Amino acid sequence: MMTPSLQRLREACRHLDEGRFEEALALVGDQHESPAAESVFLVARGLLHERDGATAEADRCFDRTFALGLPLATLLLQCGRYFTRRGDYERAHHCFALLQNFRPDGMKEFQTELPPPERARYAPWAVKDLVAGRTRHWAYPPIKRTLTERFGAAGAWAFAEMAGNSLGDVATLPIASLRDYSRSEARVYEELVPSRSLVLPVPPVSGETDLQPFETRTREVAFCVLDDVVVSSKSNFLLAGGRALLDYQDDELEKVALDLYLDPIVYAVDDDSVTVLIEGGAFSAPPLERAFPLVGVNSSNFGHWLIEFLPKVWACLERPGFDSVPILIDEHLHPELRPALEFFVGRGHPVVVLKRGEAICVKQLWTCTSITYFPFSGAAGRPDVQTIDDEAFAHLIGKLRPRLATVDPPTHRSRRRWWASQPAASKRIYLSRKDSQHRKLVNRREIEDWFRGQGFEIFNPGDRPFTEQLELARGADIIVGPDGSALWIAFLAPAGKRIGYMNNPHLENHRWITLASRTLGHDLRILTGEVAGEEHRDPTKYDYRIDPDALPGFLEELLSREGDDGRVPTS
């Protein structure tokens, strides 16, 4: 049984975590029976002194606490924060480095609060987390900016060394459009789909919307073969002919301000050029004769994979010789992305995996421009850049029908019983979305319970093999879920699906989804909810809450489509 003194210490630490310093002080008192009680007392007293402006007294309290060295998570956190506020980064780093073993986000807090000069000094621990995949690529820019602003090319060299990569070269190159460069410099250039004007429709919303139809232009889809290209892991840049090639067209870069530091090889950005680090393998390793790149900042994202990466493969599947061209992919992918690629190209297709930070030279690089522009950073929800040639997209998917049909009907034994138990023309699935993702449905459990009561089976698609996701989408009659790329699997389903999205009121991204869905023969409806939680720099990513009272009418609208009897089962 826990002793009274230890119980008081635990309670006092809980008060410290909650900012209730007076209560913590009262629990331990000023007569200390142990160094542990003294440490808690000193931290509580020091925080109160700091609040009252008695800096010298606060310093003495925290100096003594640091000397005692009790490695409790609460004390490490409070000391680390105090020393950071005081600019004593050596001792702050010591506390947060120890805290990392208790709270994995501790060092992230330390990094966030550092001024740029100190951020450069403590970069090694942050880069280690990046390389290990424990931190998303959004953490790259502040570290790289600081290193290059203070140390120039040597900063890029330091970053490469921290990441465990060899330095090949640091070069400043002008940024060029992949399409424009290829038109004049490519060994082969073939326009597959010309750019054209189209009107993006108003998304079909259950309720009112102030959106209007929007006229824009689609992208040109072109196939090209480039000579002597350096391809780098997780990078959107292709280095060829003394240029840094990026897949943008016309004024897309002007419309969407990209944070180019997010690209792992970029270390400095000027108006029209980037300074890039070329990993040593690009020079020391034998070049590949041919390759087809599917690498990039967002290569691990299912939505980007489905709309940005795989359509390039689909466009080349029937091209003579493509079946022998190695496909370059990044090492750190979601477990189901490589199987998704293999589903379309076959497991025998050669694949080369680039490790994090690795670069390779390719003598003849086969590639395509993307059918849609999904920038890896910057503003989203803009109909003037986020569009799609619906007819070209549907044509690509049409050519996949024989392959897609191989998953019809469901083949997994675990699915047969469930599908067989569903009434004809009433198979209903709900594709859930994790709470950790942006654009969170804050009352998710309540909404899922309601749909479950209406005969829907709830699935988390991210936990299922790609082929099973296809089976679910192709076998269902009604597909519902919170807005997210999981619902885009319906693009690969036969015509006639009824698809229900739930989202916040900011629906610009749904214009191209609506257009593509209509052309593919699906009926789409969107139910909007109220914005909930903190604001986001991109309103399309706001969290939201759906009113349960709006669900019956929403489902009635979905069921009222031709071919359904419109009946809604009772819960």
- Indicate the mean pLDDT: 87
Enumerate how many helices there are, as a single number: 23
The Rg value, from CA coordinates, equals: 28 Å
As residue ranges, the low-confidence spans are 422-426, 562-571
- Please give the number of β-strands: 20
Distance between the termini: 48 Å
Sheet/helix structural class: alpha/beta
Q: Determine the fraction of residues in helical runs and give it as a percent range.
A: 25-40%
> Largest sheet at a glance?
11 strands, mixed
Bin the strand percentage. 15-25%
Shape: globular
Describe the structure.
With 571 residues, the chain is α/β, with parallel strands linked by helices. Helices cover 39% and strands 19% of the residues. Strands 1, 2, 5, 6, 7, 8, 9, 10, 11, 12 and 13 form an eleven-stranded mixed beta sheet that branches. Helix 2 (21-28) runs antiparallel to helix 3 and helix 5 (73-85) packs antiparallel against helix 6. 42% of the residues are buried. Residues 422-426 and 562-571 have low confidence and may be disordered.
